[in-house]
Amino acid sequence: MSHSRAPRNRTIDLRDDEHLRLRKAVEFSSSLLIAGDSQKLVCGDAIKILSSTSGAQFDLLFADPPYNLTKKFGSEKFSSRSSDDYEQWLDAWLKLCVPLLKSTASLYICGDWRSSSAIQRVGSKYFKLQNRITWEREKGRGAKQNWKNASEDIWFFTMSDEFTFNLDAVKQRRRVVAPYRENGKPKDWDESANGNFRDTHPSNIWTDLTVPFWSMPENTDHPTQKPEKLLAKVILASSNPGDLILDPFAGSGTTAVVAKKLERNFVAIEADEEYCLLAAKRLEMAETSGSIQGFEDGVFWERNSKIADRKNRV
Ligand SMILES: C[S@@+](CC[C@H](N)C(=O)[O-])C[C@H]1O[C@@H](n2cnc3c(N)ncnc32)[C@H](O)[C@@H]1O
To answer: What is the pLDDT of residue 288?
Structure first.
């Protein structure tokens, strides 16, 4: 998987000499005994592993399963199927998650427009539906006879009415267009030499994400890698430091990496060994760099906000 790349291309590769070392960071067992402080990358089939997992319970589940499309993931291939069959497949692993989650746990499940309604139906069988987040995925491909697909959904469920939601941790910093004053003082915004800013309530439409691409330090060759910033929002809102997070379809390890950067624990399962090794490499890199693009000094910035804005400390 070692490639020759253009000099400014920052895509994370596996060098041939790294495989042996990184393999040691991956578990290959199909029955898991987890502790509350687990930080595990597990290689194998999520359905088999989830059905023989015991130990501590999870505070948060983030699942980014294959969408209902025929797609190759490394050595694995997911085949598109009828909506009913896709629903059955979702049901098969989701029901195994139920006993592994705390009664206060939250769940986020990703889908595209085709698989989204199935996720809503199956998820609502087991969990309390709280919201659907739609995020702008600006890397979509144009279509000749259809609207270009440029969005995806993330369904937000909880186990019960009691759950963590750290609103202040996920507010979005925006420039104030019409700064309103009361008695000469800024009303709900902050004034600074670089402009006027307000921390706004985050909505269920996320337009501030960039799908990883070659010049981003988090980029890998995984075909459907999620942005670290997306995971940062989910993890900060719906867990606390030290909590335990489950990702049954870990891919290049984005959930595990962001969990580590934000001081959470995790169990990340992935069927393809090369992706597990990539995830292990990213986790190793996270030991020396905890930065998350687009989330700086505890602030979520709008996409493409100017460096000068970001340097501004309100
Ligand atoms: C949509 S991708 C996840 C991408 C990930 N969120 C990231 O940021 O890299 C889905 C992943 O699930 C893996 N997968 C598919 N079926 C699986 C199974 N039964 N058990 C474990 N992993 C599986 C695929 O190999 C693929 O890497």
So the answer is: 95
For position 313, what pLDDT does the model report? 46
User: pTM for the full model?
Assistant: 0.94
- Sorted by where each begins, the domain ranges of the chain are 16-163+209-293, 173-204+300-314
224 lines ligand 1 (CB under 6 A): yes
**Which tokens go with 114?**
């085709």
Q: What pLDDT digit, counting tens, does each position of 202-233 carry?
A: 999 999 999 999 989 999 999 999 999 999 99
Q: Taking the CA of residue 83 as centre, how many other CA atoms within 13 Å lie in the half-sphere pointing to its CB?
A: 10
Alpha-carbon torsion, ordered 253, 85, 49, 51, to 10 deg: 140
% of the chain beyond a pLDDT of 90? 76
Per-residue buried b or exposed e for 22-52, using 16+ beta carbons within 10 Å of the residue's own CB: beebbbeeeebebeeebbbbbbbebeebbee
Is residue 68 in contact with ligand 1, taking CB distance under 6 Å?
no
- Candidate from 6-20, 96-110, 274-288 with smallest mean pLDDT: 6-20
pLDDT of residue 78 exceeding 90: yes
Q: Please give the distance, rounded to the nearest whole angstrom, from the Cα atom of residue 221 to the centre of ligand 1.
A: 13
45 lines ligand 1 (CB under 6 A): yes
> Which pLDDT score, from 0 to 100, does residue 311 have?
55
CATH superfamily of 16-163+209-293: Vaccinia Virus protein VP39 (3.40.50.150)
* Element spanning 51, H or E: helix 46-51
Q: How confident is the model at residue 314 (pLDDT cuts 50, 70, 90)?
A: very low
Q: How far apart are CA 278 and CA 281, in angstroms?
A: 5
Ligand 1 center to 275 CA (angstroms): 9
Span from the CA of 193 to the centroid of ligand 1 (angstroms): 46
47 with 273: CB under 8 angstroms? no
Residue 194, both tokens: 């670089």
* Nearest CA owner, ligand 1 atom 5: 251
